């Protein structure tokens, strides 16, 4: 099955040798998104909720570029440097998704690229 590379200027450019997303058949695999401002590639100023919202906005922009929406997400992985932010992630995620919600994992990690506090990736089926 052919792979289609999905890319949008509404989300940050890749920081390494990877694509923003890859579509295979009806499945889209979205790479990890961090709270970078696409135009400057700098970390967004603001609090944790602002960072989480920007991450989910990036996921939404990539989903739309692939021809889908947040409602097509089947799995989301969220990486946090501090699990005390877990309730805030839940509040922010509820702003972006309608029921039935996708499957999800929230994982505390020691560090993330560019020193950010949150990253998320996703899988969607169109």
Task: Compose a concise summary of this entry.
By secondary structure, the chain is an alpha+beta fold. It has helices at 48-65, 86-96, and strands at 3-6, 21-24, 27-33, 36-37, 42-43, 73-80, 103-108, 118-125. The chain has a single domain, classed as 60s Ribosomal Protein L30, Chain: A, CATH 3.30.1330.40.
User: What would you give as the CATH superfamily?
Assistant: RutC-like
Please mark out the parts with pLDDT under 50 across 5 or more consecutive residues, or reply none.
Answer: none
Q: Give the mean pLDDT.
A: 97
The total number of structural domains is 1
- Structural class, judged by helices and strands? alpha+beta
Describe this structure in words.
By secondary structure, the chain is α+β, with helices and mostly antiparallel strands. The protein has a single domain (3-125), classed as 2-Layer Sandwich (60s Ribosomal Protein L30, Chain: A). It is built from two helices and eight strands. It has helices at 48-65, 86-96, and strands at residues 3-6, 21-24, 27-33, 36-37, 42-43, 73-80, 103-108, 118-125. A six-stranded mixed beta sheet has the order 1-2-3-8-6-7, with helices on one face. A two-stranded antiparallel sheet has the order 4-5. Helix 1 runs parallel beside helix 2. The longest helix is centred in the middle third of the chain and has 18 residues, at 48-65. The radius of gyration is 14 Å and the shape is globular.
């Amino acid at each position: 099955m052919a792979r289609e590379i999905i890319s949008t200027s509404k989300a940050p450019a890749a920081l390494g040798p990877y694509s923003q997303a890859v579509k295979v058949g009806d499945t889209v695999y979205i790479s990890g998104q961090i709270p970078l401002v696409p135009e400057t590639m700098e970390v967004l100023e603001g609090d944790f909720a602002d960072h989480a919202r920007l991450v989910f906005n990036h996921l939404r922009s990539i989903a739309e570029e692939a021809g889908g929406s947040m409602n097509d997400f089947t799995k989301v992985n969220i990486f946090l440097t501090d699990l005390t932010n877990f309730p805030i992630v839940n509040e922010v995620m509820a702003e972006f998704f309608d029921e039935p919600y996708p499957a999800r994992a929230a994982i505390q990690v020691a560090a993330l690229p560019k020193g950010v506090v949150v990253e998320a990736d996703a899988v969607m089926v169109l």
